[in-house]
Amino acid sequence: MKKTNNIEEIIEKKKAKQERNAAKSGANLVEKIAPKAKKPAPAEKKKPNTVKIIPLGGVDGIGMNITAFEYGEDIIVVDCGIAFPEGDMPGVDVVIPDFTYLVKNAHKVRGLVLTHGHEDHIGSVPYLLKKLPCEVYGTRLTLGILDGKLQEHNIRTEDLFEIRAGEMITLGAFDVEFIHVNHSMPDAVALCITTPCGRIVHTGDFKIDFTPIGTTPIDLARFAELGRKGVKVLMCDSTNAERPGYTPSESTLNASFDRILSDDTRRVVIATFSSNVHRVQQILDACAKADRKVALTGRSLQNVVRAARQLGYIDIPEGLMIDLSECKYFPPEKLAIITTGSQGEPMSALYRMAFGAHPMVALSSTDLVVLSASCIPGNEKLVTKIINELYKLGVEVITDRTDDVHVSGHACREELKVLHSLVKADSFIPLHGEYKHLVAHANLAKALGTKPQNILLPEAGRIIEMDRRGIHWGDAVESGRVMIDSAGGEGVESAVLRDRVNLAESGILFITAGITPRGELAVMPEIVSRGFVYVKENEELLRYLEDMARKFLLKALDRGVTDPTALGNRIKDDMANTVYQKTKRKPLIVTVITEVDM
User: Tell me: the pLDDT tens digits for 44-71?
Assistant: First the structure.
């Protein structure tokens, strides 16, 4: 038994040893297969599920169109235009958007996409590129016009990339397709922006014209095809959303220009938008029929026509065009002058003609002036001012209210209905216009079946977020208007503008005085008025103000204020209150306190 027990004990010990070895081998195998855990690798950054639509302009007035689209680390910008200065902006030449948000996120910006070459869509591009160099994409004529602007600003043009309607480009997370549309200039396009959250159709400026000048009708078939595929958001031109019916075709003006220019009794001066290449071509064709020579005046018009001619967008018969200086060699009735200034711009060629300040053109009762443009809202006073001056010269004036000399480049209500019905977007954001235009367009979209909760009226700087469910409000970013004066600097500060307005309304008062190094009054205060009051009729008031300035000065000196700068600031504050109490006006007050050796 013992022997047997010994054998059994040996077997048990051997078996236990094998199990221990197997267990040890298994542990080693596990170690080899799964080594000691390391620190987990950082998780991939979660992709956003929202596209940000950020209007930075073009939604609270005519002009300054610019919208940014952002997804994660990618931003594209659509259009970058200017606006005309308003009446309360003395000395301001143009108004551009505030680019602060784009500059802060410059590392995200993948490119600038342009819909067409009008100033309210490309005029601010040079100012943006100075702060934020980036690639610019546009059609041939659009880039041709922009190229001249960039050269004027000494900006390189290597980053301009030409595209054609029907083509598509990829910029970061965005695929951008260009769609042919009709407008008041060639090479206008709408955009289909495909994002990870759905498609956005951005119309740019457009109208539906089946008989356009020098091009083909709008590509409605492509809009219909996109509508069948599914469009998340439609962003659409609202300029004519209040106007019923259809916008007339450009070709309807041919008969009017033929009739006007066939008048062989007087010279004809026609003012139009410098970028309206179609209109210029119509005028040239009518002049050729009437055997009139044509001259251009206005730098922007000359630049656009030069670019359009070089690129083949305008056809000028040999011998038709002459330099403005050559007009003196031809009878007035055989001349036509195309000019800028249809909006009453104070520095334009037509403005200078109206006020007798043009160096080469003097108007008289033997001339006919045609305003071949509609008045942009806000410019009514400027245009009326020019018309009044022209009438004073005995000039006959034709406008779009008195004759068929202009058609809009923007879709009216029935055309907007067509586009909405083709695109069939889930949500709608009206663009391009004053607030009343956006409201009218929103109401039209509701009538066509878009749910009210899927319509947002954009605000400059306020983010609209788009996800797979729809659109909703987000946060706000820094936005606004930057005013550029003739110096072309970084912009006119609000404080400077307030001073300009204040000077225009209330004038300026200069207060001078002298003190000794010991802090004694040496030269009595003297006041000089400029634009504040008429001196000869207000001598008593000025004596009173000088007396008050003397009292304030002595009081400050008695209190130990002897530094000229500090003394001047103290007197300025005291006198501002006194002047307002006496006159209810707030002139700009400048004090000059000097030390005088006695």
Answer: 556 678 999 999 999 988 889 999 999 9
Q: Look up residue 373 and give its DSSP letter.
A: S
Token pair recorded at residue 423: 């695109």
What are residue 515's DSSP bridge partners?
A: 521, 595
Mean pLDDT, rounded, of the chain: 87
Distance from C-alpha of 330 to C-alpha of 287, rounded to nearest angstrom: 14
* pLDDT lower than 50: segments of the chain: 1-8, 10-11, 14, 22-40, 43
How far apart CA 157 and CA 382 sit, in angstroms, is 35
Q: What is the DSSP-derived secondary structure letter of residue 252?
A: G
Model-level pTM?
Answer: 0.77
- Are 76 and 113 in contact by the 8 Å Cβ rule? The answer is yes
In which element (H, E) is residue 29 found? Answer: helix 2-33
- Over residues 506-554, the pLDDT tens digits come to 788 899 988 888 888 888 888 888 888 777 788 888 889 999 988 888 8
Q: Helices marked H in 488-563 — which ranges?
A: 494-506, 539-558
CA angle 472, 475, 481 (to 5 degrees): 110
For residue 34, what is the DSSP state?
S
Q: Please answer whether residues 66 and 110 qualify as being in contact, where contact means their C-beta atoms are separated by less than 8 angstroms.
A: no
Name the phi and psi angles at 94, rounded to 5: -140, 160
* 363 conformational bin, left if phi > 0, alpha if psi -120 to 50, beta if neither: beta
Give the number of other CB atoms < 10 A from CB of residue 256: 18
The pairing of beta strand 470-476 with beta strand 588-595: unpaired
**pLDDT at residue 274 in the model:** 86
What's the farthest any 2 CA atoms get from each other in the chain? 147
pLDDT at site 31: 37
Enumerate the H helices of 49-189 as residue ranges: 100-104, 119-122, 125-131, 140-152
**CA 372/CA 383 separation, integer angstroms:** 12
Residues recognised as catalytic? 237, 410
CA atoms within 13 A on the CB side of 531: 13
Distance between CA 288 and CA 296 in Å, rounded?
15
Q: Give the DSSP letter of residue 492.
A: B
Kindly give, in sequence order, each residue whose CB lies less than 8 Å from that of residue 432, ignoring residues fewer than 6 positions away: 58, 59, 62, 65, 205, 237, 238, 239
